[in-house]
Amino acid sequence: MRIGAHVPPQDPLTAAAERGADAVQVFLSPPQQFRGPKPREDAEVLRASDVAIYVHAPYLVNVATTNNRVRHPSRQLLEKTVRAAEAIGALGVIVHGGHLPEDDDVAAGYANWRSTLERLQTSVPILIENTAGGNNAVARHFDRIGRLWEALDGVETPFGFCLDTCHTHAAGEELDDAVARIGALTGGIDLVHLNDSKDDFGSGRDRHQNLGRGRISPDVLVEVVRQAGADVIVETPDGEDGSQASDIAWLRERLAPANA
Fold this sequence. Notes:
Strand content: 15-25%
Number of strands: 10
Strand order of the largest sheet: 1-2-3-4-5-6-7-10
CATH class: Alpha Beta
């Protein structure tokens, strides 16, 4: 199990060292734009590093939607993101499950996901992340995630699941048994986004808080990590009120007895 953080993309290896991280997650292009990544001069250095690297696709990517004006550029941007991730030796590309217009049948979203993965040829796994809100989201509630995995059965492009603890809490899904429940649907968890929440259970609000400072039980957060057995990325605030380095140390300290 490697523990790391979502860091600025300019110099991820230095950011990892500053945080005491052995894994990092980065955006390779602006998260709120459909502009694709540019080639990185440090690609070979990143590939050769011992630091595990994950890439988060831009937030605008929504391959589930029936809106062609969003789905088509989303597929194009995901393709570009995956190629850039391959160039730096990334272990996975994280993509939000996405959503559809409220009156549309969610089954169309599952079909759009399948079509997207069938067209995408890559050795880098696409890690579909559960989301916090949205009335017609594909991956907010676990029952829909299960239906999505059923729709993706047999797809050859590698894919997996990224569990975000804040999103799970915000979606109104209990975290105490989340690892077992989602594992039964997806076959396992490939990455954990370990985030506390500023808001109450079921709020639908995606506001991350530093570990042990929010509304999620600290013991539950640690137990999710223990049960998942996957790499961990914190996407928590990194400023005067809380730091990612402290969050990583907080988690390692609490995992130590189990690892001894």
